[in-house]
TrEMBL record:
Recorded GO CC terms: mediator complex
InterPro entries for this protein: Med7/Med21-like (IPR037212), Med9 (IPR011425), MED9_metazoa (IPR039242)
Domain of life assignment: Eukaryota
Keyword list, A-Z: Activator, Coiled coil, Nucleus, Transcription, Transcription regulation
Listed name of the protein: Mediator of RNA polymerase II transcription subunit 9
Family listed: Belongs to the Mediator complex subunit 9 family.
Compartments, as annotated in UniProt: Nucleus
Length: 113
C-alpha cells in the first residue's frame, strides 16, 4: 500500500476498549468456569486492540509529510499560503480584465470581435 490519507486511518478504538472493559467486569462477577471463558475472550479482545493499534501506527507512518520536522512543516505552510495569495490576486486580476472587456463591449458595441 502506498500513500495513505488521514481519512483512511481508522482510529475508532472506543468500541474495542468498551468490549475489553465489559469482559473484565464480567470476569469479576462470574464463576471459575465462566471466568476462564471470559479471560480468553478478554485476552482475544486485547490482542485485537493491539493489532488495531499496530495497523494505525503503520498507517500514520505512511502519511505524507509525517517525516517533516515542525520547522519544515511551517515553512511549507508559509510557502503554500504565499502561493494561495498570489493565485487569488491573479484570479482577481483576470476577473477584472474580463469585466472591463464586458464593459468595453457594452459601451462600444460596434467594435465587438
Amino acid at each position: 500500500m502506498g500513500s495513505v490519507s488521514v481519512e483512511d486511518i481508522d482510529v475508532d478504538f472506543l468500541a474495542l476498549i468498551y468490549d475489553i472493559i465489559k469482559c473484565v467486569e464480567r470476569e469479576n462477577t462470574e464463576s471459575a468456569q465462566a471466568k476462564r471463558s471470559e479471560f480468553q475472550e478478554s485476552s482475544q479482545k486485547i490482542q485485537e486492540f493491539h493489532r488495531k493499534l499496530d495497523v494505525t501506527r503503520d498507517q500514520i507512518r505512511k502519511l505524507p509529510g509525517i517525516d517533516y520536522s515542525k520547522e519544515d512543516q511551517i515553512k511549507k505552510l508559509e510557502a503554500l499560503r504565499k502561493q494561495l495569495v498570489l493565485k487569488k490576486k491573479l484570479l482577481q486580476k483576470y476577473k477584472d480584465m474580463c469585466a472591463l472587456e464586458g464593459v468595453k463591449q457594452y459601451l462600444n458595441p460596434s467594435n465587438a470581435n
